[in-house]
Design goal:
With 185 residues, the protein is mainly alpha-helical. 52% of the residues lie in helices and 0% in strands. It folds into 2 domains: 3-35; 49-184, no CATH class. It comes from Polyangium spumosum.
Length: 185
């Protein structure tokens, strides 16, 4: 339709109103298509959260959660903790109060959602494909990682992460994680 024909059909005010209404409907359409209610959220698969928060998170906080690494707000996998980045919804400062429950839960979510499809496979096969995860391969230096290689295969840090991913008992995972933390103190 040419401009003159539109002006004759709708008039200038009508044309302006049509434009505003069209833009509004378009905005509503885009907005409605991107909204997801609580029932639309997907749960993520991940090994034992209690073992993670008690043993694995403290290791990751010390090894990976420094302010120059995954303890930066701009990192896709953010690690919060007492000695690094603090959760923005809390008033803690780095080096102050112990890592909070919210920070532990956020660390768990960050690690579990780093590679969700592969993590689902790890959960389904009880950890037998854990060595295929991005988390493991970046830590081992097998995938490009800005921090470089941070664990060697079968060293305490590697066993800490793999133990949790492999559904090992809490005592076994804790022993590996404690051994991995000791040189970082």
């Amino acid at each position: 339709m040419t401009r003159n024909l539109r002006e004759r059909l709708f008039g200038r005010r009508g044309l302006a109103a049509l434009g505003v209404v069209s833009a509004g409907l378009l905005a509503i359409g885009f907005g409605a298509s991107s909204c997801v209610g609580e029932e639309g959220l997907e749960a993520y698969a991940c090994p034992n959260p209690a073992v993670f928060t008690a043993s694995v998170s403290p290791y990751l906080e010390r090894r990976c959660g420094t302010l120059d690494c995954h303890g930066q707000a701009t990192r896709p996998m953010r690690i919060y903790g007492q000695l690094g980045l603090r959760h923005p919804l809390e008033s803690n400062v780095s080096g102050g109060a112990a890592t909070t429950q919210l920070e532990l839960e956020s660390n768990f979510a960050a690690v579990c959602n780093l590679d969700p499809a592969a993590m689902q496979q790890v959960v389904d096969d009880l950890g037998s494909t854990a060595d295929k995860l991005l988390l493991v391969n970046k830590a081992r230096g097998l995938e490009r990682h800005k921090g470089g290689k941070i664990v060697n295969e079968q060293d305490p840090g590697d066993l800490c992460i793999l133990g949790w991913l492999g559904f090992k008992d809490a005592a076994t995972v804790d022993a590996a994680c404690t051994a991995a933390i000791e040189p970082l103190k």
